[in-house]
## 1
Amino acid sequence: ARPLTAEQPPFAVTGEGSEAELAKLAKLAELEKRGEESMASDNKKFEYLITNGGIGGQLWGVCTTTFFLNVWIASFAGPAVMVGLAVAGKMKAAGGVAAAIGAAYLPIWPRPKWLHWFMQQGGIRYFRNSSLLYEEPFQTSAGGKTNKKLLGVHPHGMFCLGWGILFARHELDQVNFCFSTALYNSPFFRLLTKCTGNPQPADKKTFLKLMQEEKPMAVIPGGFEEATVTSETKHRLYLKKRKGFVKYALQNGYTLVPSYCFGESRTYSNLQGFWKFRMWLNGLGLPAIVPFGRWWFPLLPRNSDMHIVVGKGLQLPTLATPSKEQVDEWHGQYVEEVTALFDRHKANYGCEKDVLEIW
């Protein structure tokens, strides 16, 4: 296993099994258990490194990632399959699919700890090396009150694999992760996320409701459009027209916290070009992507490195009715913060010559 940087991170886990590494594993487990408390009480940066050291971890990761992607695909395909079966006269099969879809919307499903743990650990073990670095503690509460923070997750990539890692983190279990309303309303993906985390639709009504309740939140500002422009050889963010989240943050005095997932764009190849047509499809709520991952099963992502960096917060003022100029100003500052975060860390992850493109 190769090191991430010349300076070894404070807590690392490898598959070698030496006493020193087992001690680090115990330390990491302790931090995982402490969760929010550790993030709130320690002023030092937090860095977690998982270096996969065996076939067992890879198989675990493959199973978890395959399950995640199948649920994602089945959520969109389920209604079409049901209609197709009904048209073909296979009413029993169509009824079974309809029953499964209906059950996914019932409010009775629990949040089993074993499923959360299985998805969290499997997701990070899929990659050759994965790490998570906080430039400052990400406190979701202090003094008995929640902190008004909005975590921006970049880039979207094909299937938001970095977002999935953050979604399952213990220290972020109070954060409301907002994503595509179409995907949130799709039956099986909705069920999986509700059983493993704290999902919310990224619509205006929900956004404003959560902010008025001063809830910590997370969002992928680039959305389907950012997935569409993803390139395995470029670092691209779709942000120029994404100003709504900044406006809402200004209205409620939120702190914007940028994050960047190094390696997200390398997990898949993606068709380039035909931008106008594909953006039109995005406007209909459809992801216009053509992903190709591992050669032996293209839907699986390449298991390259995945390194997530969470930056320092940008505190916004509270402006009940911000002007267009004020929204533009703070949006520009946020874009500068994301770019600066990328530039500060790109050399650590083999991207020292790369430039972050803002679309």
## 2
Amino acid sequence: LGLWQGLLKWSLQYSDGTTNRPEGEMSEERRKFLEKAMEGLGRTEVDAIKGNMAVVLENPRVYFEDGLGGTDLESRLDALENVLDVVDNLDNAKSLVPLGFFSPIIGLLRCNYAEVKKLAARIIAVCSQHNPPCQQHALEGGALSVLMPMLHDRDVRTQALSAVTCLLGGHSDGLALFANLGGGRVLAALLDGELRGDEEDPRFQLRLLHTLAALAVDARTAERLNEAGVGSSLLDYLTNSSRFEGGNGWHRREKGLRALALLSRAPALGAQPARTLEVVSATRSDYQALPPDDQAAHREVVQYLDDLVEAVSSPVPQAAPLAIAMASPIGAGGNA
């Protein structure tokens, strides 16, 4: 504890101006102190993972039985939250695999408790994002096949979808497996469900549209999504302008247009130019009616509309326009 207090005091003094920064090289004594502190930091974070996972994995059978609750459940949820905080660091995320904790986290996706499943999915999302070793381990551990059914559960689907998105980012084998598991049909059904549902979920819609746009960056995946009916469902979704009034409406509209522009490169969607141009016309009219500040906040909408017009006017599917391909890469887009 004294070491940490010393490090905290030293860092505060040199950041709040109360101590003059010495010119020249750091003294050997101070250098050794900092090296020891930073070495201890790494050990402490790994120890934190081990200690919290010990709480999580105590008598794991309780996760698959009824009756887990009270302080026992709360302590396990707190421990999972602590792990989630630590693995936000890429090196710590990678350490879950050699420590033997990644597979048990995947196993928790099958448990009886929604709050546990949510946190397990969030940990998988954070660990897998831009992290090929964790992606590979999760795919080999069957995470995708467990996450797919969770997409139909309203209690956990947002976290499951975030995990799927991060798991597949830039991973060609994962994208192929997703297609073979009927992933396109699942996403189309989710979008159709939001169209038919009595109570729409704007937050989930934004997550879903982010996933569609992220997956459609890959041309082969975009073609598979169109074959599964995603492009047609997305056109249905974007046709109703009243859906985007208030809340995060223009964020959803912008994300949906990006996904549609990417899907328009692939076959199948090109058979519906009239519907596409109807969406373009209505969106352009609504966009022009926005105040200047709002137009500036969603200026990429104009590029997506132009890309859609170009796509439906071209007899041959085009490669992704640079503005689309370079937009936000596949990722969590919010894991909460």
## 3
Amino acid sequence: MSGQRGDKVAVVDRPARRQVQKNKGPARFDAKKAAGTSYNIWYGKEEGRPQPREKSATRCVIDSDAGRTQGTADPQAWICFKFAQGKCAIGDQCRNIHCLPAGVFAKELPTGKDCFGRDRFATDREDRGGVGAFEKDPESQRTLYVGGLPARRGLEKALRMQFGEWGKLDRVHIKRDGGAGFVQYAHRASAEFAKIAMAEQSLFGDDMLNVRWADSDPNPRAAKRKRAATIAIVADSIILREDAEMAASIEEDARQAQEIQDEATEASAPRAAQVLELPSAPAGWESRRDPTSGCVYYFNPTSGVSTWVRPKPVTTSVPLSPPVAASALGGLLVGYSDSDSDSDDNDKSNVT
């Protein structure tokens, strides 16, 4: 387990309280009692011999028992087993977690571990007790068998209320012949916690529950529901695979198209440069390119005239004055000659 603790358990912002004053330790080993048998000194049980069931003297109450412990900030910590039983005597000093499994913790537990960190097995025990089996179908792994139900009115409501304290319920079913029922949780971790928390507990005070892992539900509707869920999972897997193949094909097509485009760009680069080069303009004119059409036009900065047609060069020589009329020029010359002749004659007469 890794990540922030807040996404793994329903953390309560207060120190966890001590549920009992002192933990009950391992049972004393009685050699005479255990002679010829395999005896578990921790659970105080002889293997292979049925043990008398006793009503639980403690019970976990989430509203008052849950809280912070030393394990709350530890990403490697698991739910406290004794907390689920209502028997943890060290409270906020516990190295495990005193909260319900929630969030990522409940949804993504390792297949080989339960919410208490215990190893799971491929199949259930014969009595369907123990940690649970990971080879069963997913629905059965989060469904509990509840025996010892009394014949009382409001039985389903009582089951929902008391088992619903440990997590979200998917469904509750009571057998028609009475005496037993099934409680299915949304997450396996919730079922694992509830199995420990409700072991040998009572619904109405004078009864004692027998909580075990449920076997595969023989109900035809349940089998149909599981088959539909399996088909949906398979269909989703096929769709995901086809989507992945299609995405890879689209990506390859895009890559090839980009390569073709790059090659075409490289081949047309010299020609594009040549097209963008402006032709030389006649004298007195400037060649320009129209930004809209891309065509070349010519502009005369002196006169402000522009034209699409290539113009003739503008001459730089000074233009001549308008020609004088020949008749007027002739009269001026004739008058000039006459005056000169008269002046000469007068000079001559004066001399004689």
